[in-house]
Amino acid sequence: MYRHIVKMRTFVKRENIKIPKTRIFETYFYNMNPCVLDIETTGLSGNKSKIILIGILIPHSDYAEIIQFFSDSKDDERDMLLSCLKILKEKSIDYLITYNGESFDIPFLKKRLEINGIDDELNFYSYDLHKFIKYFSDIEKMTGSLTQNELEKYIGISNLRKDSIYGKDIPNLYMDFINENDDICLNLILNHNLNDLIQLSRLLKSNIYIDLHGAINRYGFISKPLSTSITPRISRNKLILFSDNLLIDKSFVYFSESSQDISINIDASSKNLEIIQPLEEYNGFLYYDLNKLDYLPEIYDRLSFEELDGFESNYLILASDSQKKYREINFLSMLFFEYVLKKYELS
Question: Is the pTM above the cut of 0.90?
């Protein structure tokens, strides 16, 4: 069933599946390389338990490549982690797609990297589908539960799952594999992880139920040039862009004497970035004059500014009577951030 390609127990498969995409999702993740990720562990604590399997699914134009890094013994975890990181970098991955990954998979991986003495912060944008659905859709009201299995039922893909075990069975199966070298246990573990990856990729069709504009405004958008997430905010008639996980070699500070001009503060030591741009207000409308920006056709046309509800004669309305327009705020933030990177040569 699997093609075993290296001694370290790395398994590679190709599946004839495509990740579902929506126009809104593609707008925010245009030209980005995703990776679906799921891990299997010996327990729930990253301090006490180990990772025994890291599964990643990398979509291509007409198929998905699935790579599973399996810990053949209790001493293989470090090599497994390093091998996975190497592939993520070789494939130029921009963001990770997980299900409840920010509560489990990501912190668990970071703790095991730390314990194994691996200097890598796993600095990828995290698209945790569970979090986006829980806080920016009404699905939980319909299902009563947001386990992956329940969501699969709701979306109508539960019949496509081809494994017979649960995640809670993995630790005992792994111990049976270690003690008895039982290939049946190995294949059960691999197949469960494989199905989790494939089903999670299919679950991305649930993006149609998510208020993605609101979610991106809360959790930020990806800056590909800086390999970080940028979070936009409107506060006191100012557009504020910030990040606290910036990987950049040098600091940069710019302040203008004019209270209406931009300010930039990048601190390489703390990994913090803050850009503040004052906005204009008139008659209850908060807006920005797009004429102040150099024309960046690639991003301006891709985001279709002139089709936005808040676009009026090259002005972009961001809020009306204190009601924020999240799509307009996000799109302006993406355009404005690209403008700042180019003008001040920050990328």
Answer: yes
